């Protein structure tokens, strides 16, 4: 057997071993699965009492964060990161932290605190109906 055949076989075997790993990487980067989206209509989130004055609450199931200022007014933002559309799943105080690339946002203003994201979070309209927080796209 020549050295060239052994190298070719080794190269083929190495390529076969890496193919599944490459496929997983492509899937993780937005393959065929559906990406989360912002709300397209009104979404009931929970009781008004769930968001204390001067705090924020992350509603992961709806990709929305709601903040309440000391005066009792509410603000809401989509929690889809503006860098790569990843759903943000961590809230530390009033700081949102994206798990994909580490972008950070202020939950009370939607502003970027840490890149790679450069655009602020999308604001949503929010109101309280019969004691329930309702968020919807801004019109």
In short:
The protein has 139 residues and is α+β, with helices and mostly antiparallel strands. 19% of the residues lie in helices and 32% in strands. It is built from one helix and ten strands, in the order αββββββββββ.
Task: Outline the structure in words.
This protein is an alpha+beta fold. It has 1 helix and 10 strands; from the N terminus they run H-E-E-E-E-E-E-E-E-E-E. The strands form 2 sheets. It has a 6-stranded antiparallel beta sheet, with no helix packed on it. The chain has a 4-stranded antiparallel beta sheet with strand order 5-6-7-8, with no helix packed on it. Strand 2 (55-59) and strand 3 (64-68) form a beta hairpin. It is globular and about 70 Å long. The N and C termini lie far apart (73 Å). The model is unreliable at 21-32 (pLDDT under 50).
Low-confidence stretches: 21-32
Assign the structural class, choosing from mainly alpha, mainly beta, alpha/beta, alpha+beta, or little secondary structure.
alpha+beta
**Mean model confidence by pLDDT:** 84
For the biggest β-sheet, the strand order reads 1-10-9-4-3-2
Q: Work out the radius of gyration.
A: 22 Å
Shape: globular
Name the quaternary structure.
single chain
What's the helix count?
A: 1
Proportion of residues in β-strands: 25-35%
Number of strands: 10
Name the helix and strand elements from N-terminus to C-terminus, one letter apiece: HEEEEEEEEEE
